[in-house]
Design brief:
- The chain has 324 residues and is α+β, with helices and mostly antiparallel strands.
- The protein has two domains: 82 residues, no CATH class; 231 residues, no CATH class.
- Helices cover 17% and strands 26% of the residues.
- The strands form four sheets. The protein has a six-stranded mixed beta sheet with strand order 7-4-3-9-15-14, with no helix packed on it.
- Strand 10 and strand 11 form a beta hairpin.
- Helix 2 packs antiparallel against helix 4.
């Protein structure tokens, strides 16, 4: 008889609905012997159960639930990741405990918005597609009335959903981005768009979490999933972001507010140029005529308490079998 604990390794797909499968990680052998062996098995299960509950309790004391953080996305032609060239602004995915923040992207809450500034230059751009947020009072972008820069959501520990998604990030380029504005100057040509993804020390996206102090710290994974792309694109469709807690990631700025690079995603610029990548209203599959579209996805970690309760149940089952 052996009891195994299975944890996801770095790089594995953690996006399955079952974050921790008790049935697969517990293997109690093909047979149960009588007498001393059964007694020993009960002792082992009791010890494992106690350890699971103890670890869960200690983790709840040793880690705080995450509260306010940010993932910052900025498109450009390259250069320094913390200040890319030919960039039309940045897009923010926030998690915040501020009152009034809601997870429903159909509702513009008290913090959502920040329309990007219209840029006449040959820049690369990114924005959340949120036409339902339009105020029609002159404060929204006139060039891209559907475009917004900041989308606030509640922190992961305040939601019952396993996966939290910031949907419909549009990435495109203004006309002239690919061939540049200077004739016969190859240095002004931009065949690729760099999508730089960062966080900040003072708004650090959590890499592990104890929701409400009730569960053991589990890895939190951040992923950009491509949902639409220009004709001819045959590259990757999913991009796993780096662990924000990795001390070896590139940093820029003062220690208290430094930006941290999570990804530099290079995308072909072909098929991205448009004055407005969205034409008309309706489903994006029909109205987005240029550029890329992504979802930013992050899952909630599973609970080690599930494992502890499962071990408790096995202990009771063994006890009942012995008495029978």
């Amino acid at each position: 008889m052996h009891i195994g604990f299975y944890f996801f390794k770095k790089g594995e797909n953690r996006f399955a609905a079952d974050r921790l499968d008790v049935h697969n990680c517990l293997d109690v052998g093909p047979t149960v012997a009588k007498g001393g062996n059964l007694k020993n098995m009960r002792k082992v299960l009791f010890t494992a159960c106690s350890v699971g509950l103890l670890v869960a309790g200690m983790a709840g004391l040793g880690h705080a639930s995450e509260t306010d953080w940010a993932i910052i996305i900025k498109a450009g032609s390259g250069g320094n990741w913390y200040g890319p060239m030919d960039s039309g602004g940045q897009t923010n995915a926030f998690a915040s405990t501020i009152a009034g923040v809601q997870d429903d992207s159909a509702i513009r809450d008290t913090k959502d918005g920040n329309p990007p500034a219209s840029s006449p230059g040959s820049t690369a751009n990114s924005a959340w597609y949120r036409p339902q947020w339009m105020k029609n009072d002159g404060t929204d972008s006139t060039s891209w009335p559907w475009a917004f820069g900041s989308d606030y959501r509640t922190p992961l520990n305040n939601t019952s959903n396993l996966v939290k998604t910031w949907e419909d990030l549009i990435v495109w380029a203004n006309p002239g981005f690919i061939n540049g504005g200077t004739p016969n100057d190859p240095s002004d040509d931009h065949p690729d768009i760099h999508l730089f993804v960062t966080t900040q020390v003072n708004k650090l996206a959590p890499s592990s979490q104890i929701p409400d102090g009730k569960t053991v710290a589990q890895p939190i994974v951040y992923k950009l999933v491509m949902t639409q792309w220009p004709a001819g694109y045959d590259g990757p469709k999913e991009f796993l972001l780096a662990d924000p807690a990795d001390p070896n990631l590139p940093r820029n700025g003062s220690p208290a507010t430094a930006k941290i690079l999570l990804a530099d995603i290079v995308l072909p610029a072909a098929g991205t140029e448009a004055v407005n990548p969205i034409t008309g209203t309706g489903p994006l599959t029909a109205t987005q005529t240029a550029g890329y579209r992504f979802n930013l996805v992050t899952p909630e970690p599973g609970s080690m308490l599930v494992l502890a309760s499962g071990l408790t149940g096995l202990l009771g089952l063994v006890s009942r079998r012995r008495k029978a």
